[in-house]
Amino acid sequence: MFGEKNKLQKIASSCLLAMTKRKYISYAIMALFFIGVIFVSAPKAKAAPAGDQVVINEICPKPDAGNAWIELYNPTNDNIDLSEYTIEDGTHKPKTLDGYSILAKEYFVIDKSSPNGFGFVLNTASAELVILKKDTLIIDQVSYGKWDDPVYDNNPDDDPPIPGQGKSLSRIPNGSDTNTDNIDFRVLTPTMGTENKLLPYSDPVIINEIVPQPADGSLNEYIELFNSGSGPVNLSSWQIDDISSGGSSPYTIPDGTMIAAGGYLSFYNSIDHISLNDSGDWARLIDPNGDEKSSINYTSSKRGQSYSKFAGSWQWTTTLTPNVENILTVETVVADLDAPILQTDIAGARNQPDGETVQIIGIVSVAPGKLSTQYFYIQDGNSGIQIYNYNKDFPTLTVGDQVQITGEMGSISNERRLKISQLSDIIILSTHPPPEPTKTTISQVGESFEGQYISVIGTVTKTSGSTFYIHGSGEIQISIREGTGIKKPTMHVGDKVQIAGILSQYGDSYRILPIIQSDVRIISSSGLPNSGSSVLYTLIISAIFSWITLAILPKRRRI
């Protein structure tokens, strides 16, 4: 960066010298054009040479106790002075590490609670970026949760997931760096100031039986595990889920849960809230290292039957055997035991438990393919909800269509959704004008507006890539999805904006998902530049224009 500044100064001096010698003004204009090219192409940050020393080794955004922290590791055989190092999140003021050092093969931990801790927030409900710099060089950077930023990271698909409560993002093996974060990092139990290791976990524990559609209600869905090994296994912090990167939120098995040798253990929907789709789904067992130990999938379920393992094959059986050996009983009589379907409005459907079958009517507020290929949204004037189909099987829908939908209630990351299994679950009733967004304030954003098309006004507090935050009577994240085709306007911290979009819940927080270009509108600009370097460039350009003006003006004659 300093080399670029020297070039600018030399070019500016040449311009001044040319003008004082009464050369052609075109020289100055050409020089000014050349400087403009440098401004446009000048990088915002330089990458460090390959193999540089210190790495970001572990990130813990939300520990069980204390404050968020970041761990650095020195894999070299030399002590390293950190005086010229800073750590930042790409948008807030960097935290200088002046006065600190890190010993060879040792760790350095910095957290938010210490007097000299970092000032930015490590996101726990959305994507985040952490950058380690030495002077202006990027030594290492780590992003998680699909961070999308053309300056620092334009490939969100190689990001590891967001660490949950009491978990950290840990570099495995300790100190290694392939420059691909989802290869280098795992979500593990924190190991502050010590080596990151993958602990060995037992292989004999498998999924042995699943019941996706019990006759006595969805709360009695269950997933059964079996320990085929010769010794007991501690299942603390193992997880059960129904599909990778989707479906229900994973269920973490409580600490102290043991499964005996040759023993069985069943987990019911009433406890784990894992909702297995009637139309087909997966069940998976994940160890604390994040490795899949066992899985099974099915294409459709049979009411009142279990899908059970017998020797090397899986079969449907009418005999349910939770916590005991499986028994194969082939179905001989087929009876229609379908429960009556609850017809209600969207608000009433949202109040039903996961697994309940309901029928609702609403207006399409965003069509399939805009925000996702697997879901869209409807609303009825009082409430809204996401409509989800794992197989992406939807009729041709347009915004404003009134539809009748029959499906099964479920949730994903605390957001309510109605899950359908086939095309015939959606009936188009009529067509209406597209719904207008409901105007509200950020402080009123909550469960009552979830799934609806809303509009708020606020001031930009943080912006990077396709994600930014605004503050009014509270703060909320705005996320622009690629499928919308929205071009994010140039914005700065302090700009006043009006934002419209679908209100979506993700974990413990809410976000607005704009649908069309007019949903993102700048009302007034703060007029402030993005960074100190922008101020420097502005001053240099102003000086050059002043020199050109002085050269063009005729000199006063002496009397």
Reconstruct the topology from this structure.
Blueprint: H1 2-20, H2 25-41, E1 46-47, E2 55-60, E3 69-73, E4 80-81, E5 85-88, E6 95-96, E7 101-102, E8 107-111, E9 128-134, E10 137-144, E11 168-171, H3 181-184, E12 185-188, E13 205-211, E14 222-227, E15 233-234, E16 239-241, E17 251-252, E18 258-259, E19 264-268, H4 269-272, E20 281-286, E21 292-298, E22 306-310, E23 313-317, E24 342-343, H5 346-350, E25 357-366, E26 375-379, E27 384-388, E28 401-412, E29 415-419, E30 426-431, E31 438-439, E32 453-464, E33 467-471, E34 475-479, E35 496-506, E36 509-513, E37 520-524, H6 532-552
Parallel strand pairs: 1-10, 24-25, 27-29, 31-32, 34-36
Antiparallel strand pairs: 2-3, 2-11, 3-8, 4-7, 5-6, 5-9, 9-10, 11-12, 13-14, 13-22, 14-19, 15-18, 16-17, 16-20, 20-21, 22-23, 25-26, 25-28, 26-27, 28-29, 28-30, 32-33, 32-35, 33-34, 35-36, 35-37
Gist?
Helices cover 13% and strands 34% of the residues. The chain has 559 residues and is mainly β. The protein has five domains: 59 residues, no CATH class; 142 residues, Immunoglobulin-like (Sandwich); 113 residues, Immunoglobulin-like; 90 residues, OB fold (Dihydrolipoamide Acetyltransferase, E2P), CATH 2.40.50; 87 residues, OB fold (Dihydrolipoamide Acetyltransferase, E2P), CATH 2.40.50.
